[in-house]
């Protein structure tokens, strides 16, 4: 029986004592294939066997340590072709781990360790006695390969802790060495490979017993303080069984009450697992710990009491909290009184757990027809792809290439018959063969996503079809991109399935609750159920609450695509947030992580009594927590918090927190000056300035600071007060002024306040873009010129179209130098807080330089641009507000658009207006009054500027005579007022052009979005506005009620209204007014108004009538895109020119530097119109491209994350206008071409 092994060992007839023959055979199966790899000598496997079994041929260790191929052959590195076979081989080796003698198993481990030495990611755990072989053994047993990323977490299959200790003893190493290493190895990052390997040990079946056995070694290690190390310790403790975990209950209690919110979040579920054992340690902390520890300990005791229904424990917690000296601890009693109890919250979670009644898909005529269409679409797609492949092959052949021609076979009638049989059967999963996945993805994917919107499709039918085509799940056992889009489309069309129904549906296909959660929280492209109603979502999370809790408390992860905001979105869908996650979410909602703070607060929106806990946080020991609590109360407008805010602000020493508290009080209607003492301001400023000034202000020209006086007394504002305000603003690191700064600046004399704000703004911008020194610029230009000259000389074919091609080095230096001279030397972003002073002080002059800066530096100074936009939102002048609104609508940079929209929404909220009302009520007038006149005073005499119908400005002297320019002031004129008059006239001329352009765009957006105004607002803000009234006179308006047009009219020069028959009309007080459109007028009315405009020689502001309308066909209402112009060819520059003229901006560049869309934002609706085409690289080339589709997506989404609205959900006028945009763009091209895919490929 052992003849083969005897031959292998060179005549040794017997195996070493105790070594099973089957293990030797498994060892041979591991080693023999290695010799087939390049660079591995013949006979290596034989020598390696002799070393492992007998200790001979020790030289193989050095050989393994010098050859990467041996490491790969052992399965420690690289990819494995047949993972199932590799796993079976490992089972053969480690299934007998306990029965193989220590010596040969140790030598096998040493061989593995030697093979790892050439790898960058070799041994990571710090195991005493240089026992790296133990880590190598764990890696090999789990199948973890050191240079392969992703996949499931590795799990040990046969190695045991006891067996490892046996090997450690044989090697003369302490038995506790591995346990000490997996807890004690330093972990310095979230993605530590050492941690991954430590976790493999946590999967051995006797892990808990080993840790308990060496608890005295582990316990001191748990005192580590580093953030990543603490997180790792808690992960290792979480892997213990409950009995073993209770051995460390004291340490767990310390973690759960520590100052680290990450540690608390991870430790809280461990406390709950320890249950009764945790009570005494928590009681000790609740009475003897620091205030923050006492607070957290009592919260945990209260939670334990609720879960155990332990009234005495609840009484202890309440009594202890009430008697505590710290206000934050005492506030727990109010928090508990206000909170909903466990039973009440669970009562809100009543839901039915669905079951799949049948997996048989009924062959209805409607579904059969839909299936035939899918089949036809798939084969048509394959046929088209094959044709393109043949054409590509022929072109290559003509050029001398010998490419392989691949033709994908179409699906046959027998394939369709097999599919029908499968659908009609009771088996959920398709057990047949699959083609290569890209075939299904490319050809079946689009057809299935379209089928999902068909009323005949059921969730079961869709799941089985996706399974048949291999498009249901990814390798990580989450629903893939096609499946997610398909189920989203199905839910949009039918309201089915709910997320819990979908989870039940996916279980037989190997997708569990974690997989569904991963798709719900996916951060890269299609997101499952993101826009589903709450009732269709929360039952899934209630049913799988432990999965949600685990992810919420996880402080790290290796999945780059997992978006934690989805977790908060999930909690927000509950009728009441689950008690088990409230503590963890509150920590984040009041925490320092800004990215999670807002979504965490939103997740708690439905929590009764949350305000009590927020108010208690005003007493927190950390100033940032106090500031966040005040900001949250500000947003909630929680009136009962006034007393607590007043008490907190009276003793607050930290300026940022104090400012947030004053902001909250002001929002709650309390005058801020009540809490400020101007008399003490100078002394406080001197005291504060005695400390070091922020290094970010080292550049600031203090000596040039303008002088400012108090408005009420006329006395000079002390220089130290101005300095203090600027220093505090920089320390706050925000361009948004708080209540303290706004109030003090509001006390300055207006003229000097505005001058200070403008000086600060312009000084900051000048510093931010201060160019590098000329000599440095020259050196960089010379180096670049030398480099480019060399490239052009060695590779002329790539530069033949470059205007600098053929120039000498000196000529290139001259060409490049101006660009380097404009290059900023550094950045002033560290002092962006100065912009808060500008925001609190500046006025109408701030908009122009800000607009110039954004236009010039949008591509290189993103952070600075966002800071300036935030500043604009706080400048109390229409020009600043309108600039911000225009950036939100039309600016070319998406991040600027999003910041401007966010700031505009916040400003509207502060004023109690809608976004549209904000735009109406802040329209600048360039200084003109309702009659269109601007008085320009020289003191005793005044000139008048009049705004003409064509928006030109004419000047008249005091006698009413027309003059060309304002004269120089006379001796009896006020020279200062004359100077101001000239400045006002100059500004008015500049502003008028901008106002007309911006308000024309706004009125067109109002047409598209079908906005209507109350008659009174329309008259006040539009028809009586000196500039906008003239725009309104070039449009036809209608009175609407419940979407129906009751009357039409046009405003006249004198403010009166006329109908199409020249009859005067009056608007009823309760009328609603809207811009007329073809879609809400009959053809006769449209024709008559067009004639009216011709008769009176009125040039329409834009073409609102006569373009015709796009009527959405009934059978396309559920569609998410208009594809009427798919395949229409156009030159890329013609597309760009027309799209930009129509108000679209270029989409973001995606993979490979290509962009594929133009989009137009409609901020008041919160959506964007998206025109998609085949794409163009950056920098752009004037190549032939093809139009693809028009769709509409929520604002702020782009690329893979862009979701598409059903066309029926888009306002009809907007749909019609954007359809006409696409039609006009298509008309600039050559029309449809059946070979558009070929002609538009790169």
Write up this protein:
The strands form three sheets. Strands 11, 12, 13, 14, 15, 16 and 17 form a seven-stranded antiparallel beta sheet that branches. A six-stranded antiparallel beta sheet has the order 5-10-6-7-8-9. The chain has a four-stranded antiparallel beta sheet with strand order 1-2-3-4, covered by helices on one side. The model is unreliable at 1-5 and 9-13 (pLDDT under 50). Helix 7 (102-116) packs across helix 9. Helices cover 52% and strands 7% of the residues. With 1242 residues, the protein is α+β, with helices and mostly antiparallel strands. Strand 7 (1044-1051) and strand 8 (1057-1058) form a beta hairpin. Among the domains are: 365-543, no CATH class; 625-675, no CATH class; 679-770 and 827-921, no CATH class; 774-821; 933-1095, no CATH class; 1114-1239, 2-Layer Sandwich (TATA-Binding Protein). The two termini are 65 Å apart.
């Amino acid at each position: 029986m052992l003849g083969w092994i005897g031959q292998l060992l060179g005549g040794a007839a017997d195996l070493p004592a105790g070594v099973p023959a089957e293990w030797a055979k498994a060892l041979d199966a591991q080693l023999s294939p290695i010799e087939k790899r390049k660079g591995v000598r013949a006979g290596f496997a034989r020598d390696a066997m002799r070393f492992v079994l007998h200790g001979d041929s020790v030289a193989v260790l050095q050989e393994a340590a010098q050859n990467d191929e041996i490491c790969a052959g052992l399965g420690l590195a690289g990819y494995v072709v047949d993972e199932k076979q590799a796993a079976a081989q490992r089972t053969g080796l480690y299934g007998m781990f306990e029965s193989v003698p220590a010596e040969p198993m140790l030598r096998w481990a040493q061989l593995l360790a030697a093979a790892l030495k050439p790898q960058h990611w070799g041994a990571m755990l710090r195991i005493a006695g240089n026992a790296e072989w133990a880590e190598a053994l764990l890696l090999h047993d789990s199948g973890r390969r050191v240079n392969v990323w992703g996949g499931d977490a590795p799990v040990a299959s046969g190695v045991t802790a006891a067996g490892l200790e046996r090997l450690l003893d044989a090697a003369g190493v302490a038995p506790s060495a591995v346990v000490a290493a997996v807890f004690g190895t330093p972990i310095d990052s979230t993605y530590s490979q050492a941690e991954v390997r430590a976790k493999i040990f946590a999967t051995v079946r006797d892990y808990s017993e080993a840790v308990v056995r060496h608890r005295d070694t582990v316990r001191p290690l748990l005192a580590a303080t580093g953030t990543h190390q603490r997180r790792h310790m808690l992960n290792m403790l979480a892997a213990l069984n409950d009995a073993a975990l209770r051995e460390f209950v004291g340490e767990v209690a310390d973690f759960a009450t520590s100052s680290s919110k990450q540690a608390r979040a991870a430790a809280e579920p461990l406390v709950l697992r320890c249950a009764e054992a945790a009570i005494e340690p928590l009681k000790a902390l609740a009475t003897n710990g620091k205030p923050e520890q006492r607070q957290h300990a009592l919260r945990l005791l209260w939670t334990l009491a609720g879960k155990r229904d332990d009234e005495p424990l609840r009484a202890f917690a309440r009594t202890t909290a009430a008697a505590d000296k710290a206000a934050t601890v005492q506030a727990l009693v109010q928090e508990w009184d206000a909170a909903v109890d466990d039973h009440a919250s669970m009562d809100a979670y009543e839901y039915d757990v669905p079951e799949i009644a049948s997996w048989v898909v009924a062959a209805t005529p409607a579904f059969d027809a839909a299936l035939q269409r899918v089949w036809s679409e798939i084969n048509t797609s394959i046929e088209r792809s094959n044709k393109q492949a043949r054409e590509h092959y022929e072109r290559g052949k003509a050029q001398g290439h010998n490419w392989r021609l691949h033709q994908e076979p179409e699906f046959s009638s027998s394939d369709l018959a097999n599919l029908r049989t499968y659908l009609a059967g009771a088996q959920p999963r398709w057990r047949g063969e699959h083609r290569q996945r890209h075939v299904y993805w490319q050809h079946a994917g689009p057809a299935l996503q379209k089928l999902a919107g068909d009323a005949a499709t059921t969730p079961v039918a869709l799941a089985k079809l996706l399974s048949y085509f291999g498009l249901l799940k990814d390798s990580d056992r989450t629903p893939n991109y096609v499946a997610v889009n398909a189920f989203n489309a199905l839910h949009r069309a039918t309201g089915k399935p709910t997320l819990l129904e979908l989870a039940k549906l996916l279980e037989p296909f190997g997708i569990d609750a974690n997989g569904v959660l991963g798709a719900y929280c996916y951060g890269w492209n299609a997101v499952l159920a993101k826009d589903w109603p709450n009732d269709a979502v929360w039952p899934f999370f209630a049913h799988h609450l432990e999965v949600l809790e685990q992810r919420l408390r996880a402080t790290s992860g290796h999945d780059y695509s997992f978006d934690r905001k989805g977790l908060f979105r999930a909690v927000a869908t509950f009728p009441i947030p689950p008690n088990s996650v409230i503590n963890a979410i509150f920590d984040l909602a009041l925490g320092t992580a800004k990215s999670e703070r807002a979504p965490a607060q939103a997740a708690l929106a439905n929590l009764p009594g949350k305000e009590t806990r927020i108010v208690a946080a005003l007493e927190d020991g950390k100033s940032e927590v106090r500031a966040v609590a005040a900001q949250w109360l500000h947003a909630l407008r929680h009136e009962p918090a006034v007393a607590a805010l007043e008490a907190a602000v009276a003793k607050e020493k930290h300026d940022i927190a104090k400012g947030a508290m004053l902001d909250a009080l002001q929002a709650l209607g309390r005058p801020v000056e009540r809490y400020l003492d101007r008399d003490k301001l100078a002394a406080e400023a001197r005291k504060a300035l005695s400390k070091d000034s922020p290094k970010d202000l080292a550049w600031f020209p203090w000596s040039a600071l303008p002088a400012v006086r108090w408005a009420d007394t006329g006395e000079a504002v002390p220089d130290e007060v101005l300095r203090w305000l600027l220093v505090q603003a920089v320390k706050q690191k925000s361009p948004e002024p708080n209540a303290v700064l706004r109030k003090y600046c509001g006390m300055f004399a207006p003229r000097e306040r505005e001058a200070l704000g403008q000086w600060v703004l312009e000084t900051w911008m000048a510093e931010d873009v201060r160019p590098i020194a000329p000599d440095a610029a020259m050196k960089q230009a010379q180096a670049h010129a030398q480099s480019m000259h060399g490239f052009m000389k060695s590779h002329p074919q790539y530069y033949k179209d470059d205007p600098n091609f053929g120039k000498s080095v000196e000529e290139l230096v001259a060409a490049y130098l101006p660009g380097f001279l404009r290059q900023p030397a550094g950045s002033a972003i560290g002092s962006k807080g100065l912009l808060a002073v500008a925001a609190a002080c500046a006025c109408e002059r701030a908009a122009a330089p800000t607009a110039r800066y954004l236009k010039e530096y949008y591509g290189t100074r993103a952070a600075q641009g966002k800071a300036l936009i935030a500043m604009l939102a706080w400048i109390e002048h229409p020009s600043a507000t309108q600039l911000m609104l225009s950036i939100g609508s039309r600016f070319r940079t998406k991040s600027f658009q999003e910041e401007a929209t966010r700031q505009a929404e916040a400003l509207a909220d502060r004023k109690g207006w809608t976004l549209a009302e904000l735009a109406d009520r802040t329209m600048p007038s360039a200084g003109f009054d309702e009659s269109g006149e601007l008085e320009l005073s020289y003191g005793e005499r005044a000139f008048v500027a009049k705004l003409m119908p064509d928006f030109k400005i004419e000047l008249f002297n005091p006698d009413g005579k027309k003059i060309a320019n304002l004269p120089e002031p006379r001796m009896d004129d006020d020279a200062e007022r004359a100077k101001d008059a000239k400045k006002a006239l100059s500004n008015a001329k500049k502003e008028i052009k901008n106002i007309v352009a911006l308000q024309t765009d706004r009125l067109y957006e109002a047409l598209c979005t079908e906005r209507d105004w109350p008659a009174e607002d329309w008259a006040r803000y539009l028809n009586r506005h000196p500039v906008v009234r003239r725009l309104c006179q070039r449009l036809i308006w209608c009175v609407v009620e419940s979407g129906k047009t009751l009357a039409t009219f046009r405003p006249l020069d004198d403010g009166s209204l006329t109908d199409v028959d020249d009859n005067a009309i009056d608007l009823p007080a309760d009328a609603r007014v809207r811009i007329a459109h073809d879609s809400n007028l009959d053809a006769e009315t449209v024709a008559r108004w067009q004639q009216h405009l011709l008769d009176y020689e009125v040039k329409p502001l834009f073409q609102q009538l006569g373009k015709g309308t796009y009527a959405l066909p009934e059978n396309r209402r559920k569609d998410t895109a208009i594809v009427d112009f798919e395949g229409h060819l156009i030159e890329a520059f013609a597309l760009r020119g027309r799209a930009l003229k129509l108000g679209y901006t270029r989409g973001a560049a995606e993979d490979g530097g290509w962009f594929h869309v133009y989009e137009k934002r409609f901020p008041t609706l919160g959506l964007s119109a998206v025109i998609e085409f085949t794409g163009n690289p950056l920098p752009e080339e004037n190549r032939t491209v093809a139009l693809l589709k028009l769709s509409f997506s929520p604002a702020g989404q782009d690329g893979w994350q862009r979701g598409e609205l059903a066309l029926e959900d888009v306002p009809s006028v907007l749909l019609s206008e954007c359809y006409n945009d696409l039609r006009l763009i298509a008309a600039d091209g050559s029309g449809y071409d059946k070979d558009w895919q070929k002609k538009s490929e790169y």
